[in-house]
Amino acid sequence: MTKIKLTKQTPTYTLDWYIKWVASVIIIISVILTSNNIYPLNLFFYSAGLSGWFIVALLWNDRALLVVNAVSLALLLNGLISYYVK
């Protein structure tokens, strides 16, 4: 059997490391809120988490993450605005 050695690709305890982990925990909280139908609070948490990941994407200069998080954030903010305008 071949043993696979995993190595870390990103540094730890840097600004982007803290932002990505806080943002990830916030997104997990938003999924919990969504699964319990706690609306629109779930959208606020999800927007905060996506904003964190958008910042990380900017720091990493990762276009794929920038696109996914920018589009998702815009759609969530559109949903929040629609909720409060009605």
Characterize the main sheet. Answer: none
- Structure summary, number of beta strands: 0
The secondary structure category is mainly alpha
Shape: elongated
Oligomer: single chain
Number of helices: 3
- Rg on CA atoms, Å: 16 Å
What portion of residues belong to β-strands? under 5%
- State the helicity in percent bands: over 70%
Sequence of secondary-structure elements: HHH
Stretches where pLDDT is under 50 for at least 5 consecutive residues are none
End-to-end CA span: 61 Å
Mean pLDDT equals 93
Task: Give a brief outline of the structure.
The protein has 3 helices and no strands. It has 86 residues and is mainly alpha-helical.
Tags for this model:
mainly alpha, 86 residues
Explain the overall architecture.
The protein is mainly α. It contains 3 helices and no strands. Helices cover 74% and strands 0% of the residues. α1 runs antiparallel to α2 (41-60) and α2 (41-60) packs antiparallel against α3 (63-85). The longest helix has 23 residues, at 63-85.
Write the layout of secondary structure elements.
Blueprint: H1 15-35, H2 41-60, H3 63-85
